[in-house]
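Per your request, structure below.
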C-alpha cells in the first residue's frame, strides 16, 4: 500500500485509525558528531506565537512595535534572518514542526485535519530519550473539532498537557488537562499560559531534562483584545509607519489593526521577559535551548490582502531566535541562510545529541549553529497546495510552489512562472520581475532550484482539488483562516 493510500485508509477508518508506513516505529540515524554535546542533556523551551510576522520586531528594524525583551534575546541568540514558514498556515506548520516532514508527506496541508496519532514526532523522540515533555496552549493538529477534548493517545508524546485545539477568544479561553473537564485560563490567556510555563520550568529545573512547548494564540486576529495596558501603548494609530505596499484605500484600517496587532505583541514581549527571567533564576540558562518563533506571518492589508497562505514576505517570513549559550556563547549572531519549518525538528535534535528518525525530511542545521558546518542551504521551499476554500479561487487564491533564497523570492502557479522579487533591492516587493528579460538568467536559476526542491520532496504540483481527493478531505465550509 503506498503512502497516500495508507493515509486515506487511516482517515476513512477512524480519526485514530491505521498508521501509514511512513509514520511507523522510528528508524534512527546517528546525529552528526559535531551535534553531540559534551555536557548534560540540554533542556528545550520552544515558544511560538500565532501569525507574528518577522517585520513586526524591534530587532528587525521596526520602530513602532515595542519588543525590548525580544530585542535583548536577539542579541543573545542565533538569529535566522531568513527563516520561513514554507506552507504558511496554522495546522500545516504545526504538523511539520512535530514531524520534521513536508506537507505532502504527513498530509496536513489544510487547516483542521488530523495528524496521524502514530506519527514519529518530536515529543515522542525526546520522551524516548529520557526527557519530561510538556505542551501548553494552542495545538491545532487534532482535527476533531476546535473545542474537543484531546485524549492522551493523540498528544504525540507530550505528557504534561494544558491545551485546546484552537481558539481566538483570548479573554475567555478554554483548555483541557488530563480529563474532559473544561477549564478556563484566568484573564488574557497568553499571560496565564506563561505563568503555567514558568511553574513547569521551576518544577523541572535541575532535575531530569525537559522539553516544553508554549504555543500562544495572539497576535492572530481579533487584533483589539489585548489587555488595556498594552492597547494604551498604541492609542494613536496615525503615528504608526505603514508599509508602502498597503493600498491608500486601506491605510486607515491598516493603522487601526496594526495598533491592536502591536498591542498583542507588547503583551507577549513581557511574557518572553518572564520566561527568560525564570530560566535565569533557575540557573539553567547555559544548558537550555530557548527558541522564539511564529507559525507564519500576517499580510495585514499589504497588497490589499489579509492573513496568510501567500508567497509574499509578510506571510512567509517569521522570527526565529535560538539561544543556547553552551554552544554559541552569550553573544548572538545573525545567519542569513534560509531555514524552513521541516528543518526545526532535526536541528533541535542535533543540538540535543539525539538521533534523528529516518522519517524526518528536514535538514539538521545544528552544525551551522555550532559553527562547524557551512551555512550552505541556498533556498527554502514555499508552497500552497490547496487554497482555503473553493471560494478562495474567486478571491485570488491559487496553488503555488516557490523558493525563498537569501535574496530572491520566486514562485510559479499552475499556469507557469508568476512572481520574482529581488528582496534586497525591493524589500516591500513592489516590482514583479517575473519574465523580465534583464532577469532571465536569475529566473532560470531559480526555476532550476525549485525543480530540484519539488523532485526532492516528490511533489508533482497537482491542482488543489486533486490533493483533497487524494487524502479524502472535504472542504470545511469556511475560509479556513481563523
Amino acid at each position: 500500500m503506498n503512502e497516500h493510500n495508507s493515509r486515506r485508509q487511516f482517515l476513512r477508518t477512524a480519526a485514530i485509525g491505521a498508521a501509514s508506513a511512513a509514520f511507523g516505529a522510528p528508524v534512527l540515524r546517528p546525529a552528526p558528531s559535531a551535534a553531540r554535546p559534551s555536557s548534560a542533556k540540554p533542556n528545550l523551551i520552544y515558544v511560538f506565537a500565532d501569525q507574528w510576522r518577522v517585520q513586526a520586531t524591534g530587532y528587525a528594524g521596526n520602530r513602532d512595535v515595542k519588543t525590548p525583551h525580544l530585542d535583548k534575546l536577539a542579541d543573545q541568540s542565533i538569529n535566522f534572518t531568513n527563516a520561513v514558514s514554507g506552507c504558511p498556515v496554522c495546522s500545516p506548520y504545526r504538523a511539520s514542526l512535530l514531524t520534521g516532514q513536508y506537507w505532502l508527506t504527513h498530509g496536513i496541508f489544510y487547516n483542521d485535519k488530523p495528524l496521524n496519532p502514530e506519527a514519529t514526532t518530536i515529543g515522542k523522540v525526546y520522551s524516548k530519550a529520557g526527557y519530561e515533555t510538556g505542551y501548553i496552549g494552542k495545538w491545532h493538529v487534532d482535527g476533531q473539532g476546535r473545542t474537543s477534548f484531546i485524549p492522551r493517545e493523540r498528544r504525540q508524546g507530550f505528557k504534561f498537557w494544558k491545551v485546546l485545539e484552537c481558539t481566538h477568544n483570548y479573554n475567555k479561553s478554554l483548555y483541557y488537562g488530563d480529563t474532559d473537564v473544561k477549564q478556563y485560563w484566568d484573564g488574557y490567556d497568553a499571560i496565564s499560559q506563561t505563568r503555567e510555563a514558568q511553574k513547569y520550568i521551576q518544577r523541572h529545573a535541575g532535575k531530569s531534562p525537559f522539553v516544553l512547548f508554549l504555543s500562544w494564540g495572539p497576535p492572530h486576529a481579533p487584533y483589539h483584545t489585548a489587555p488595556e495596558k498594552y492597547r494604551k501603548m498604541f492609542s494613536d494609530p496615525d503615528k504608526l509607519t505603514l508599509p508602502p505596499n498597503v493600498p491608500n484605500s486601506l491605510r486607515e484600517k491598516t493603522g487601526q489593526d496594526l495598533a491592536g496587532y502591536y498591542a498583542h505583541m507588547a503583551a507577549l514581549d513581557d511574557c518572553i521577559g518572564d520566561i527568560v527571567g525564570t530560566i535565569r533564576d533557575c540557573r539553567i540558562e547555559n544548558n537550555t535551548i530557548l527558541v522564539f518563533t511564529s507559525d507564519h506571518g500576517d499580510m495585514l492589508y499589504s497588497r490589499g490582502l489579509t492573513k496568510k497562505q501567500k508567497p509574499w514576505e509578510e506571510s512567509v517570513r517569521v522570527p526565529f531566535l535560538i539561544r543556547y549559550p553552551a554552544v554559541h556563547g552569550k553573544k548572538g549572531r545573525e545567519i542569513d541562510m534560509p531555514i524552513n519549518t521541516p528543518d526545526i525538528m532535526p536541528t533541535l535534535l542535533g543540538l540535543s545529541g539525539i538521533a534523528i528518525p529516518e522519517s524526518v525530511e528536514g535538514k539538521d542545521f545544528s552544525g551551522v549553529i555550532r559553527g562547524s558546518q557551512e551555512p550552505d542551504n541556498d533556498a527554502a521551499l514555499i508552497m500552497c497546495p490547496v487554497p482555503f476554500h473553493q471560494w478562495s479561487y474567486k478571491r485570488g487564491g491559487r496553488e503555488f510552489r516557490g523558493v525563498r533564497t537569501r535574496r530572491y523570492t520566486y514562485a510559479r502557479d499552475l499556469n507557469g512562472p508568476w512572481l520574482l522579487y529581488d528582496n534586497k533591492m525591493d524589500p516591500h516587493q513592489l516590482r514583479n520581475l517575473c519574465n523580465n528579460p534583464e532577469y532571465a538568467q536569475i529566473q532560470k536559476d531559480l526555476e532550476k532550484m525549485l525543480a530540484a526542491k519539488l523532485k526532492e520532496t516528490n511533489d508533482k504540483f497537482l491542482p488543489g482539488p486533486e490533493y483533497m481527493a487524494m487524502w479524502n478531505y472535504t472542504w470545511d465550509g469556511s475560509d479556513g483562516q481563523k
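The first helix runs from residue 3 to 13.

Regards,
D.
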